[in-house]
């Protein structure tokens, strides 16, 4: 079982959206996924509470700094369902809960928009990960993911931000999670992007393709296996 943590202290970075997209894409592939909603606003719990999705995604929101380790251990137990992946959507501020979740992560995803403010917050997140690495005396894999980017050509600011991250030796996913209507609509309808109606959501197929490519690259960061975009799209076809 792999624990994938989504962390960023800046609101509006697309953290919960990215977590849901990855979780629902893995579930759509037949994997068993449990989401731990540790965001005080409980966006993923609210999504699940709409009770419209038919996916097998499980969302738990009764997670605290005191019981986090126990919860992760329980969902890893085959008798509890044998989850393939645990997705942790963290609260925005630095806390003991955040530190403990990062310490159990097989991969930390840092979603961010291509802006100077987001860059500063992403740097804070990476510093927290480095501190945990030093404390645990082992590496914690992490990667930055750009969200809400334009589907057109990259902006000058986006190119500048990416270059700054690369200069700081911060790993960045090549695939962005674009600004798509489907990624917003899933929270309104209580459905995954694979359950939405293409007659009511613009460019749904493009959003689903984006989600699959993005999640495939996340899995590459997790497993180390080479990301093959063509193979992913052949599976979709």
TrEMBL record:
It holds the Pfam family VirC1. SUPFAM superfamilies: P-loop containing nucleoside triphosphate hydrolases. The keyword Flavoprotein does not apply. It comes from Xanthobacter dioxanivorans. Signal peptide: none annotated. This is ParA family protein. Keywords: Plasmid. PANTHER family: COBQ_COBB_MIND_PARA NUCLEOTIDE BINDING DOMAIN-CONTAINING PROTEIN, P-LOOP CONTAINING NUCLEOSIDE TRIPHOSPHATE HYDROLASE. The lineage of its organism: Bacteria, Pseudomonadati, Pseudomonadota, Alphaproteobacteria, Hyphomicrobiales.
């Amino acid at each position: 079982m792999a624990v994938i943590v989504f962390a960023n202290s800046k609101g509006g970075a697309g953290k919960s959206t990215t977590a849901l997209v990855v979780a629902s894409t893995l579930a759509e592939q037949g994997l068993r996924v449990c989401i731990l909603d540790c965001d005080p606003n409980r966006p993923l719990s609210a999504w699940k509470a709409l009770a419209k999705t038919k996916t097998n995604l499980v969302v738990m929101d009764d997670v605290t700094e005191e019981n986090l380790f126990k919860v992760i251990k329980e969902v890893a137990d085959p008798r509890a369902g044998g989850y393939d992946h645990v997705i942790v959507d963290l609260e925005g501020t630095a806390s003991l809960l955040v530190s403990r979740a990062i310490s159990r992560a097989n991969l930390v995803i840092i979603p961010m928009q291509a802006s100077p403010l987001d860059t500063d917050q992403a740097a804070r997140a990476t510093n927290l990960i480095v501190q945990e690495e030093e404390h645990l005396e082992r590496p914690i894999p992490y990667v930055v993911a750009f969200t809400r980017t334009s589907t057109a050509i990259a902006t000058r600011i986006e190119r500048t931000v990416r270059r700054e991250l690369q200069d700081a030796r911060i790993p960045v996913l090549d695939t962005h999670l674009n600004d798509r209507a489907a990624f917003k609509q899933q929270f309104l309808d209580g459905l995954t992007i694979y359950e939405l109606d293409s007659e009511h959501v613009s460019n749904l197929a493009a959003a689903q393709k984006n989600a699959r490519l993005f999640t495939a690259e996340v899995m590459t960061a997790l497993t180390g296996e080479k990301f093959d975009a063509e193979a992913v799209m052949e599976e979709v076809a």
